[in-house]
Amino acid sequence: MSVILVTGSSGQEGSELLRTLAPLGEIVAPGRREMDLASMDSVRSKIRAVQPQWIVNPAAYTAVDKAESEPELAYAINAEAVRAMGEEARAIGAGVIHFSTDYVFPGTGSTPYVESDETAPLSVYGASKLAGEKLLSETGADHMIFRTSWVYGGQGKNFLLTILKAAKERERLRVVADQYGAPTWSRDLARLTAHVIRRTEDEAAGRNLSEAIGEVSGVYHAAASGETTWHGFAEEAVRLQRERQPGVRLAEVDAISTAEYPTPAKRPENSRLNCSKLEEKFGWRMMDWRESLREVMKEL
User: Fold this and answer.
1) Residue 206 placed within a domain
2) What is the pTM of this model?
3) CATH number of the domain where residue 187 is located
4) What does the CA dihedral 205, 210, 212, 214 come to, rounded to 10 degrees?
5) What domain range is 9 assigned to?
6) Average pLDDT taken over every residue of the chain
7) pLDDT at 278 (0 to 100)
8) Are 173 and 204 in contact (CB under 8 A)?
9) Angle 136-140-146 (CA atoms, 0-180°, nearest 5)?
10) Taking CA atoms, which of 161, 184, 240, 251 is between 20 and 30 Å from 153?
11) Are 7 and 98 in contact (CB under 8 A)?
C-alpha cells in the first residue's frame, strides 16, 4: 500500500482527506510543528523522512483579505512550499496532488473558465496560488492541480457555518449577489482525490507509478456542478435550516452588490469553472451544489 503524506490535516479539507484516503494506504499527516509550510527546510526534511508515494497538499494561506498586508507569508506557504514539495517529489518519484483556486482568474465575463484560459489574479492570495501552480509545474514533478471554488463543509471555518450562525443571531443578513460560482463540498473534493489516486495506481499495475501519474499530469478544474451567487447560497442554506427547525426564527437574506460590501482584496465576479476535462480524464463528475448542501445540512 502507498504512503500518502497529507498537509493541513487540521483544516476542513485536510480532515476530510484523512478519512477518505485512509483505505488507500498509510496516511502521514504532520502537524505544523513537524512540517511548517512557512519553512522550506521543514517541508523538505519531512518529505525526505517520510518518502511518500503521494503528497496531497490542501494546506494554504487562505486569509484572502489579510494576504494583502502579509504577502511574504502568503507566497511562502502558497508558492515556495509548493515548489519545495515538487522538487522533493521529483527526487523520490512521488506524485503531487495540489489544490488551487478560481482566484487565479480575473473573473470577467460569464462563461465558465477552462484550464487553458488566461490567468490574471486580482489579489495577493490569487497571485500567490498561481505562483504555486507555476512553480510546481516547473519542478518537473508528476502532479495534478485541482482548481476549486468556494469550499465549505460541516466543520471548520467557512461561509456556510458563518451564515447559519448569523441567521440565528440577527434579523437580516446582507449578502453579495453579483459574484457567481459554485459552492464545493470538501468531502466531494476528498472523494475525487481518492478516486484519482486509486485509478492512477490501477493504471500503474505492473509498471512505474511515476509513469502513470505523468500520463495524467496537469491542471484540472474541480468545482461543484451548477452555479449560484453568495446570496443564493446563503438563501438556500437558510431555507433548508427553516425546514429542519420550523420553530426557530431565522434572519431574512437580503441581496447586495459587491460595491456595498468593500473588502481589502478584490474578488472575481465570475468564478465559474468548466470541469469537463476532469470528467473526460477520470470519469468523475462533481456533485451539484444544491445536492451537496442538502447532504452537509443533514450532518449539522
Assistant:
1) yes
2) 0.95
3) 3.40.50.720
4) 180
5) 2-158+183-225+272-288
6) 96
7) 97
8) no
9) 40
10) 251
11) no
Annotation says 125 is catalytic: yes
CB 59 within 8 A of CB 6: no
CA distances from 130 to 49, 100, 146, 219 (A): 28, 8, 12, 11
Asked if the structure places residue 108 within a domain, the reply is: yes
Query: Has residue 143 been placed in a domain?
Result: yes
Residue closest to 292 by CA, chosen among 101, 153, 177: 153
Residue 113 has pLDDT above 90, yes or no: yes
User: Domain for residue 253, yes or no?
Assistant: no
Residue reference for cell 506524485: 95
Helix-helix angle 12-21:186-203, to 10 degrees: 40
On whether the CB atoms of residues 253 and 190 are closer than 8 A, the answer is: no
What nine digits make up the cell of 255? 441581496
Residue 170 pLDDT more than 90? yes
Asked if residues 158 and 130 have their Cβ atoms less than 8 Å apart, the reply is no
C-alpha dihedral (263, 13, 276, 128), degrees to nearest 10: 50
The DSSP secondary-structure symbol of 7 reads S
- The Cα-based distances of 26 to 22, 141, 253 in angstroms read 7, 21, 45
In tens, the pLDDT along 145-165 reads: 999 999 999 988 899 999 999
Question: How many domains, the chain?
Answer: 1
Dihedral sign computed on CA atoms, order 298, 183, 75, 264: negative
